[in-house]
């Protein structure tokens, strides 16, 4: 009887040890693949890791992403270079800082593009709120659109689990709505197509400045 009891106690102890050893494995494994890119759908993850921009959404509400091999400071320097955006952003013909109060700014941008045989020019005056090396919020104060608001977000990403970050995920979330005089469907199509070009231009500029 005593040996039976010892055998059962020993079995229970082995089970307890096994449970103790196995329990941490699941959360630890999950944390390895819980970065901002890992949480995205597999098709988007694959495209980003191949260096391609990913744009989702419709009807003026979009989320655009791209992975850049750089530091947060380097990406931040390019994104906040408001006075020189026209040098590398496609179709932007003018970008000016109208007010500068540290992390709060007002900028004016002019976009000009050829659509068939017609040149379409639009102006936006935006209020900017910066959160250092993390996020840039913006909203329309005045201009040729009825609405323009959203944010730029930068997040460090490690291409290898448990290694220091060596990339930055740039996310551009925007709600842009045309004025009543602009055909909505045409505007949405042109705007969405331009997002991928803009992100690729930013990636190229970061590489050009810091490689």
From TrEMBL:
Q: Where is the Coenzyme Q-binding protein COQ10 START domain?
A: 68-202
Entry's Gene3D superfamilies? 3.30.530.20
Keyword annotations for this protein, in alphabetical order, are: Signal
Listed InterPro entries: COQ10_START, START-like_dom_sf
Asked if Thylakoid is a keyword of the record, the answer is no
Q: Name one Pfam family in it.
A: Polyketide_cyc
Residue ranges of the TM segments: none
| Signal peptide from the UniProt entry | 1-30
Write the protein's name: SRPBCC family protein
Give the organism, scientific name. Answer: Pseudanabaena cinerea FACHB-1277
């Amino acid at each position: 009887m005593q040996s039976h009891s010892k055998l059962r106690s020993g079995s229970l102890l082995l089970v307890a040890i096994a449970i103790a050893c196995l329990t941490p494995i699941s959360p630890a494994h999950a944390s390895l693949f819980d970065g901002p890119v890992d949480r995205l759908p597999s098709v988007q993850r694959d495209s980003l890791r191949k260096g391609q921009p990913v744009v989702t959404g419709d009807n003026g509400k979009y989320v655009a992403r791209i992975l850049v091999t750089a530091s947060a400071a380097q990406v931040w320097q390019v994104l906040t270079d408001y006075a020189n955006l026209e040098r590398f952003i496609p179709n932007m013909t003018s970008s000016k800082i109208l007010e500068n109060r540290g992390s709060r700014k007002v900028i004016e941008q002019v976009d000009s593009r050829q659509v068939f045989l017609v040149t379409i020019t639009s102006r936006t005056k935006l209020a900017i709120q910066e959160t250092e090396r993390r996020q840039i919020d913006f909203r329309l104060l005045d201009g040729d659109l009825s609405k323009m608001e959203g944010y730029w977000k930068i997040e460090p990403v490690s291409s290898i689990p448990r290694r220091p970050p060596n990339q930055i995920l740039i996310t551009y979330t925007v709600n842009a709505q045309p004025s009543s005089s602009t055909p909505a469907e045409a505007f949405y199509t042109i705007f969405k197509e331009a997002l991928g070009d803009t992100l690729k231009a930013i990636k190229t500029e970061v590489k050009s400045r810091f490689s």
